[in-house]
Amino acid sequence: MACASCLSLLVLVAMASAASGQLSSTFYDTSCPNALSTIKSAVTAAVSSEARMGASLVRLHFHDCFVDGCDGSVLLADTGSFIGEQGAAPNNGSIRGMNVIDNIKTQVEAVCNQTVSCADILAVAARDSVVALGGPTWTVLLGRRDSTTASKTNAERDLPPPSFDLTNLTTAFANKQLSVTDMVALSGAHTIGQSQCLNFRDRLYNETNIDTTFATSLKANCPRPTGSGDGSLAPLDTTTPNAFDNAYYTNLMSQKGLLHSDQVLFNGGSTDNTVRNFASSAAAFSSAFATAMVNMGNIAPKTGTQGQIRLTCSKVNS
Ligand code: HEM
Ligand SMILES: *[C@@H]1O[C@H](CO)[C@@H](O)[C@H](O)[C@H]1NC(C)=O
Ligand SMILES: *[C@@H]1O[C@H](CO)[C@@H](O)[C@H](O)[C@H]1NC(C)=O
Ligand SMILES: *[C@@H]1O[C@H](CO)[C@@H](O)[C@H](O)[C@H]1NC(C)=O
Ligand SMILES: *[C@@H]1O[C@H](CO)[C@@H](O)[C@H](O)[C@H]1NC(C)=O
């Protein structure tokens, strides 16, 4: 009888570790005890010199995880003989911060040679960026290894474009084992950072569920003809652009979502109540965001002897 409960405890423990995908918060505690503090100092410095870099680093982790798992694949630069993900439509001319990650990697290599993966650096840098901009913290699970390949095709297949409606977004996140609540919470990362005009022009000129004053002010720097002003920037959160807060959701409630894919989360559909909840409770948003970031960070990690620990994040070891 005693061992019936022992056994069920063992089974529970085994299930819990399988559910967290073999990653562990203590992975570098003995092999590289200064890894996390090294990353944090570098991220804090980068974000104080340019607040937007915090947003760019959070997005880089998302664009890593959604394409064949969190394996650092997004960091691999194109070469004469290698086509990576950086030229894929959602990334090209848009993702930023790869040099910051390369610099962090150099510092981490200096304290522990060939121990800490680029995929883990991205996951920690995303958390530290959110904290640097005033958002919640969470414990990052570690032990991911780096890919030796990347896929432009899969990046274009799996990264959702801003034209997506609620159904398309739900499918894209479900394909990564993420719930609708995770999707609404993760979209709250658009409380920081900026978008180029080409990604919200159609909404400005065609949609009616947009605040008129908001649309008029955006049109000045995002003229209608395609091609002109494509790259001009607007904050994703018009009220507090560099603060990691829940203003993204109050903006949605007043039809001030910048992207089509933002406003569909509050447009009379099934996610309206979640948006209302996150708008009215900063604590509810913080908690859901932290949970969702851990869930996103668990997408298909390479562990054990899979992949490698890159020496330089932008290229496969030679
Ligand atoms: C729900 C589906 C999503 C869509 C359709 C989407 C789309 C976009 C687009 C079009 C931009 C602007 C890119 C540019 O103009 O260069 C952007 C920026 C950004 N996205 Fe998303 N995104 C989504 C989800 C996420 C998630 C899950 C995260 C992170 C958890 C995230 C974090 C960011 C951040 C922080 C920026 C600003 C980056 C910067 O300023 O450098 N997004 N997103
Ligand atoms: C990326 O965009 C640039 C223009 O900004 C273009 O010249 C290049 O061909 C694009 N790369 C890919 C792989 O499409
Ligand atoms: C780290 O170790 C690898 C081999 O394990 C070696 O090739 C590389 O030069 C070392 N780098 C530094 C900075 O010591
Ligand atoms: C959304 O999904 C539907 C059904 O899968 C598809 O027909 C439609 O083209 C998608 N919309 C966008 C903007 O990709
Ligand atoms: C939406 O707006 C863009 C830019 O103004 C325009 O080129 C496009 O044809 C419009 N699409 C629809 C479906 O109205």
From TrEMBL:
Binding site for Ca(2+) 1: D64, V67, G69, D71, S73, E85
Its EC number(s): 1.11.1.7
Top-level division of the source organism's lineage: Eukaryota
UniProt binding sites for substrate: P160
Residues where Ca(2+) 2 binds: T191, D237, T240, D245
Alphabetized Pfam families for the sequence: peroxidase (PF00141)
One function term, GO molecular function aspect: lactoperoxidase activity
Secretion signal span: 1-18
Catalytic activity: 2 a phenolic donor + H2O2 = 2 a phenolic radical donor + 2 H2O
Catalytic residues in the record: H63 (proton acceptor)
Protein residues bound to heme b: H190
Family matches, as SUPFAM superfamilies: Heme-dependent peroxidases (SSF48113)
Cofactor or coenzyme needed: heme b; Ca(2+)
Location relative to the cell: Secreted
Keywords: Calcium, Disulfide bond, Glycoprotein, Heme, Hydrogen peroxide, Iron, Metal-binding, Oxidoreductase, Peroxidase, Pyrrolidone carboxylic acid, Secreted, Signal
Cofactor note: Binds 1 heme b (iron(II)-protoporphyrin IX) group per subunit.
Gene3D superfamilies: 1.10.520.10, Peroxidase, domain 2
Residues of the site described as Transition state stabilizer: R59
Plant heme peroxidase family profile domain sequence ranges: 22-317
InterPro entries linked to this entry: Haem_peroxidase (IPR002016), Haem_peroxidase_sf (IPR010255), Peroxidase_pln (IPR000823), Peroxidases_AS (IPR019794), Peroxidases_heam-ligand_BS (IPR019793), Secretory_peroxidase (IPR033905)
Predominant location category: secreted
Function: Removal of H(2)O(2), oxidation of toxic reductants, biosynthesis and degradation of lignin, suberization, auxin catabolism, response to environmental stresses such as wounding, pathogen attack and oxidative stress.
Family of the protein in this entry: Belongs to the peroxidase family. Classical plant (class III) peroxidase subfamily.
Protein name: Peroxidase
Organism listed in the record: Lolium multiflorum
Lineage: Eukaryota, Viridiplantae, Streptophyta, Embryophyta, Tracheophyta
